[in-house]
Amino acid sequence: xxxxxxxxxxxxxxxxxxxxxxxxxxxxxxxxxxxxxxxxxxxxxxxxxxxxxxxxxxxxxxxxxxxxxxxxxxxxxxxxxxxxxxxxxxxxxxxxxxxxxxxxxxxxxxxxxxxxxxxxxxxxxxxxxxxxxxxxxxxxxxxxxxxxxxxxxxxxxxxxxxxxxxxxxxxxxxxxxxxxxxxxxxxxxxxxxxxxxxxxxxxxxxxxxxxxxxxxxxxxxxxxxxxxxxxxxxxxxxxxxxxxxxxxxxxxxxxxxxxxxxxxxxxxxxxxxxxxxxxxxxxxxxxxxxxxxxxxxxxxxxxxxxxxxxxxxxxxxxxxxxxxxxxxxxxxxxxxxxxxxxxxxxxxxxxxxxxxxxxxxxxxxxxxxxxxxxxxxxxxxxxxxxxxxxxxxxxxxxxxxxxxxx
Length: 406
Description:
By secondary structure, the chain is of the alpha/beta class. The chain is built from 18 helices and 12 strands.
């Protein structure tokens, strides 16, 4: 009976310990030396080193009950349906936009992340990018490597043109979770006035950290000398920074993105850099990865720093993330899914392996949750591009507040 109502749900073998020696696979890597000691008494650990599900061995697709993955592989609904026994996916990192978490929930697959992963490294790298934009170290280095002679004051002025003082500048953070807060603490030490926009956190946090909160995205863009992104990517905020929102920024502002590449419309950014509307940009993440300067709209953009999605990395952070991922797999093997999991990100879509008589009630609860608005309208960059001038003026004067927030 339950199969008629829930044809995609795996049977309830996960309500207790898994079958002896379950198979756990690292999908997009080959080094399992950290994970194996943690799981060796419970599971067989294999690696795939794949860039797509087409490269994953049939045995893994048929038998793996657990999977670990980085950001270099994408799992759509079609990909997830290829796995016949999968019960849990661990994203070794914080972002999970490369996994269709709703489809996973529909299929009875729990998805977990490591939300505290590399917070310090990401914040440090973000500050490096910000300082680089203000002090232009990258361009000064390039000038010397190219043989530029810098001796006189006039030559210094020419080669260091655009370098700016930091103290008193306003840094605007879009998203104020772990990474955003860590950046704020560091930025204050350099003399930045820090403001942030995040409609999801409760009031009061700004007081404890000595920063200022603004309540609309437009206010943040208008007030900031440098804008830094620290929010997750979802279907609603794709291209949050686009031609329209760039025009709301201060003339000659800086832009930094160490969050997710899809938050920025790179074509619009390239045009803004060429026109000088944005003075400089630093991107650790890109719409298409691995990133190459020879392809895409950014190839001829000036005043641009790009790094290959490495803001998170240090040997310590990598080790901690991998240990946390393997430990979460242990919880899944020895406990209940999703109840035993520490960081399950798709519980709202997940039909558990509870007694099947309860599933109808759970499905109704799911439908009610999905009907509620999940994403704040201000975080939808695409919505801004559809507004006309009258609506923009209304927002600026507060006249559209009720429409935006209801």
